[in-house]
Design goal:
Distance between the termini: 8 Å
Largest sheet: none
Shape: globular
Order of helices and strands: HHHHHHHHHHHHHHH
CATH topology: Amino acid/polyamine transporter I
Mean pLDDT: 78
CATH superfamily: Amino acid/polyamine transporter I
Number of strands: 0
Length: 352
């Protein structure tokens, strides 16, 4: 029997015996529980990053009516989460893309899946860090963007993240937990404040919820039409929740915790994200349609017209501090996931 050797050992628990049936010896500390596992899946989804990035595409493609496609994606991804949950119960191993594919097909297919997943995670980590520097960090400190400065600062962030992972999984988990709590509270607060300001100042229009904007209504629902293309708003965002499976060997009772974590991450992201989208659509104005960053434009316009101190603070927090913590937390999870997949795929074979 092939036994994987990775790090220093821990005590035996029932799930460790299950691990041995796959030919692996438990050598990670099982420190993740329900909230930590949920936080991994939720931070990888990152509704803040997804909506801020894709809302411009949704407006251009289908107008504010495009927000309703979010519900379709949430329903579909909930079904996907149920399938992934079943797989995580049957194969509770780290490096899920390699491990699942190896057992559903064969180790050669698993090897390709593992390395493709590792390549994806590597590219995404760098791109998200670069976006963090360009969109959040440099504007926060008043630095003028240049490709060179952004590249150098991205390398610094990558080094800090790598050091954090090497130093301690416990610290990494705490950072990610803080990021998730910050994102949920921050976006909920911004949603409520934006709704209040838009309503009090009569700057919102509920008719926006069914408006197609500049997109013709004729043929709106046709095959590959505006409505179908607008599903990318949710499809781009609500992904990666299966990342909780990458830490299966560090999770208490993974066969119970991980499936629940994945479906909860999808549902919470769906509910919180849709509430934010409804308020964004309600507050969307002509300037937002013309902007390359409509979410920031909407917040700025309502903040300025309302001259409200609270909305100013929340807007600053959403662009700055949580932007740093949330994206860093999500990228840390991507780095951890990449390491798990790389270790699994590097073995070139599944134990059993």
């Amino acid at each position: 029997m092939y036994v994987d050797q990775v790090t220093a050992g821990t005590g035996s628990v029932p799930e460790d015996e299950t691990l041995e049936n796959f030919g692996y010896r438990q050598q990670f500390v099982r420190s993740l529980r329900h909230f930590e596992s949920f936080a991994v899946a939720f931070s990888f989804i990152s509704i803040t990053t997804g909506i801020f990035t894709t809302y411009a595409f949704a407006l251009t493609t289908g107008g504010t009516r495009a927000i309703w496609t979010w519900l379709i994606v949430v329903a579909g991804q909930s079904l996907v989460a149920l399938v992934y949950g079943a797989l995580s119960v049957r194969v509770p191993l780290s490096g899920y893309s390699y491990q699942w594919a190896s057992r559903l097909a064969n180790t050669h297919i698993g090897w390709w899946f593992g390395w493709m997943s590792f390549a994806f995670l590597t590219i995404v980590t760098v791109s998200v860090d670069y976006g963090l520097i360009q969109v959040a960090f440099q504007p926060l400190i008043g630095q003028t963007y240049t490709p060179t400065s952004a590249a150098l600062e991205t390398l610094v962030v990558l080094a800090l993240q790598a050091a954090l992972i090497i130093a301690s999984t416990r610290i990494t988990t705490r950072v990610n937990n803080a990021a998730v709590a910050t994102e949920i509270v921050g976006i909920a607060g911004l949603t409520i404040l934006l709704l209040i300001v838009a309503a009090v100042r009569s700057m919102g229009h509920w008719s926006n919820l069914t408006s197609t904007g500049a997109v013709p209504a004729l043929g709106y629902y046709k095959w590959l039409g505006p409505f179908m293309l607008a599903t990318l708003l949710g499809a781009y965002t609500i992904v990666g929740f299966e990342s909780a499976s990458n830490l299966a060997e560090e999770t208490h009772e993974p066969h119970k915790v991980i499936p629940k974590a994945m479906i909860r991450a999808v549902l919470v992201s769906g509910v919180v994200g849709f509430a934010f989208l409804v308020v964004l659509a309600y507050a969307t104005n002509k300037a937002a349609y013309a902007s390359s960053a409509p979410v920031a434009t909407i917040v700025h316009d309502h903040e300025g017209n309302a001259n409200g101190l609270w909305l100013t603070r929340v807007s600053w927090c959403r662009r700055g501090v949580p932007g740093w913590v949330v994206v860093r937390g999500g990228v840390v999870e991507r780095l951890v996931a990449g390491r798990r997949v790389g270790c699994a795929a590097g073995s070139g074979r599944a134990s059993r």
